[in-house]
Amino acid sequence: MIDLPYTLFTRIPLYADATGAVYADDLWAKDLALHLEYIADFRICCPCLPAADRPEGTTVVAGLAPSQIVPLARDGGRLSVLRNLWPNFVQVRRAVKATQIVHSGGAGWAFPLSYYILTLRRRFQFQWVMVIESSFWMKPESGPVSLRQHLSHAFHHRMIRACMVAADAHIVTQSWYRDLFLDADASAHVAPAVWIDEQDILPAPPAAPKRRTGPARLIFPARLVAEKGVETVLDAIEAFAARHGSDAPPRLQIDIVGAGPLADRCRAFAARDHGAVAVRFLDPVPYGAPFFELIRGYEAVVLANRQPEQPRVVFDAFSQAVPVIASRTPGVETPVAAGLTGWLFAVDAAAALADLFERAVDRPQALAEMGAAARGAVAQRTHLRMHQDREAFLKDRLRLAKDVG
Predict the structure, then answer these.
(1) What is the structure's pLDDT at 168?
(2) What DSSP string runs through 15-40?
(3) Distances, alpha carbon 3 to alpha carbons 196, 327, 395, in Å
C-alpha cells in the first residue's frame, strides 16, 4: 500500500451529485477503483461536473468521494481554454501544494496538465510520476503534414520531454516512448495499457479451427477518423475487389464497426457492391462481453493506424485468440510479433494491405495458429496485473517514507 498523499492529474471528467456519489466513464471508473486498492491517500485533480450532465455509459466510482477531488473547469473550446487558463492553474497549484506524489501524463486537450506542474517543479517538494500512454499531438507517420501539425508536434515533443526529464519515475506503454522522451541511460517502466480481465480471456483456443465454408471473415473496429486509417482500409478493399473482377463471388467479408466523422462515408461504402468483397457497416457494441463475443466471430482484426498510439483492441483481439492484420507503427510493433501473432504492413500502404487480404483468404490455418499464439501472449496481461506491476515499480522507484516532502 502507498500511504503518502498521492494526486492524479487528468482532464478526464468526473461527475458528482448531492449524495456524495462520484461517477465516471465505465472503464475509467474501473481503472480508478484499482488505483484506490493500493493508494491509501488518493486524490484526483480533474474537471468535476454535475451528475445530471453525465453521459450514458457512466458508473459510480466505488470508494471515491467528492472530498478527494480538486475540481478543474472543463475546456470546451479555444476561448474556454484561455478563460480557464489561470483558474485551472490555481487549482493545480493548490493540489500540488497539498500532495507528496504527483501523477500526470502527456495527454489531455488542449494541453496536458503536466505543463502546469512543470512550472511548479522548483517551487514545491513532490515526487513526480509521468505516465505516457498516447501522443495525440504527433504528426502522421506518412502523408501530407500541415504547418500547424509540424508546429504542434515540435512544441509538445519539447514540453513533454522536459516533463519527463524533470520527473522521478516514468511509466510508458511502449519502449518507443521511452526512447523518444528520455536519454539513453534513463529508465522507465514499460507496461502496455491493457483493460481486459482474466475472465475475459478465452479459456483456450479451439483444438482445431472450424473448416471455412464461406468467405474469410475480418473485422475493422475503430473510431472512424482519418488517423485510424479508414481510407487505407477502404482503398485496400477496392484493390482486392479489382483483382478478382466484378462478377467474382465473395471471397472476403469485412465488417466495419465504429462511430465517428467518417461513419457516413463507411456506411455509404458498405452499401455498394464490391464483387469479391462483402462489406457490412455495423454499429458499435458496448465494450466488455458483447464486444469480445463480436470479435470471436472473425478470423482476424484489421487495424490501419496512422499514428504511434498503442491500440487497445490488439489485446482485446488476442484475448479471444484472434490475430491482427495491422499497420506497422511503434504502438503495434510492441505487442505484435510479426508472423507469429499478426501480419504487419506499412502505414497508408493500401496495396500491401490488399496483399494481406489475399493471404487471409488463402491461409486460414495460419490465421488460426497466430490466434492461438496471440491468446498465449496475452494470458498474463490483464488490467489487474498491469496495476500490480505499476504498484511494484512505484514502491521500488519512489521514496515512500512518511518524512518525504
Answers:
(1) 96
(2) EE-TTS-EEEEHHHHHHHHHHHHHBS
(3) 27, 43, 11
Q: What is the SS3 string spanning 351-366?
A: HHHHHHHHHHHHCHHH
Partners of 24 in the β-ladder: 59
pLDDT of residue 404: 44
119 C-beta neighbours (distance < 10 Å), count: 12
Predicted confidence at residue 140, as pLDDT, reads: 74
**CA pair distance 268, 256, nearest whole angstrom:** 12
The string of DSSP codes covering 37-66 is HHBSSEEEEEEEEEGGG--SSEEE-TT--G
In this structure, what is the dihedral angle of CA atoms 290, 222, 317, 142, given to the nearest 10 degrees? 180
Residues of the chain below pLDDT 50:
404-405
Task: Give me the pLDDT at residue 257, please.
Answer: 97
User: Residue 86: how many CB atoms within 10 A of its CB?
Assistant: 9
Q: Give the global pTM.
A: 0.90
Map grid coordinates 516514468 to a residue.
Answer: 170
Residue 205, pLDDT score: 66
User: By three-state DSSP, how is residue 264 classified?
Assistant: helix
Q: Would you state the cell numbers that stand for residue 86, as one nine-digit string?
A: 489561470
